[in-house]
């Protein structure tokens, strides 16, 4: 597999994490944006790199079992988190409460989001097992691309959030739910 192909795969795999990172940026205060950007880049980058490695190691033996449930897991996790964001945004509150709080983006939350958005990477890793792919190079490239794009996304989300405030939080919740629906529909209509 060519370097260009692996770069394109890395960009494609990182798009869900990119969208979630925009959401994190929307809900982050100015004081916390660097911390959240780094957390986002690290969590998503590491998981987008590790999942193909895990898939590659598992190979074809377990692929039929993983493919049967991966889309449901991603859909449920993203919908629950997105739904929670929507409910919190629609409840309202004063403007100070809606300026963002890094406590919403705990390590546990990032872990759940990173797993949910990297399940596709597991399937890609399974396909790597059957192709002539240097797995170490592939996972480093995928992780690095995701890391950089997620950091950029948090800053982009912060700009969007500053402009639109509560509407941006509603948009963020909707984005997470739509990513979950997209993953589910892609797998159901293969």
TrEMBL record:
The keyword Repressor does not apply. The keyword Transmembrane applies. It is a multi-pass membrane protein. Signal peptide: none annotated. The chain crosses the membrane at residues 6-28, 40-60, 72-90, 110-129, 135-156, 168-185. It is found in: Cell membrane. It comes from the Bacteria. Keywords: Cell membrane, Ion transport, Manganese, Membrane, Transmembrane, Transmembrane helix, Transport. Its main location: membrane. Probably functions as a manganese efflux pump. Belongs to the MntP (TC 9.B.29) family. This is Putative manganese efflux pump MntP. The lineage of its organism: Bacteria, Bacillati, Bacillota, Clostridia, Eubacteriales.
């Amino acid at each position: 597999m060519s370097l260009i192909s692996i770069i394109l795969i890395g960009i494609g795999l990182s798009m869900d994490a990119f969208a979630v990172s925009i959401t994190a940026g929307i809900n982050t205060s100015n004081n916390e944006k660097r911390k959240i950007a780094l957390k986002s880049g690290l969590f998503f980058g590491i998981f987008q790199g590790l999942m193909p490695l895990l898939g590659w190691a598992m190979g074809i033996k377990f692929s039929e079992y993983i493919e049967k449930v991966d889309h449901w897991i991603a859909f449920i996790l993203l919908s629950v988190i997105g739904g929670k964001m929507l409910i919190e945004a629609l409840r309202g509150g004063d403007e100070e409460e809606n300026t963002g709080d890094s406590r919403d983006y705990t390590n546990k939350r990032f872990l759940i989001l990173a797993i949910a958005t990297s399940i596709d990477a597991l399937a890609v890793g399974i396909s790597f097992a059957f192709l002539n792919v240097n797995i170490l190079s592939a996972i480093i490239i995928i992780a690095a691309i995701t890391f950089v794009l997620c950091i950029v996304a948090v800053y982009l989300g912060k700009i969007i959030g500053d402009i639109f405030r509560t509407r941006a939080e509603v948009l963020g919740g909707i984005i997470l739910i739509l990513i979950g629906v997209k993953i589910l529909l892609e797998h159901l209509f293969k």
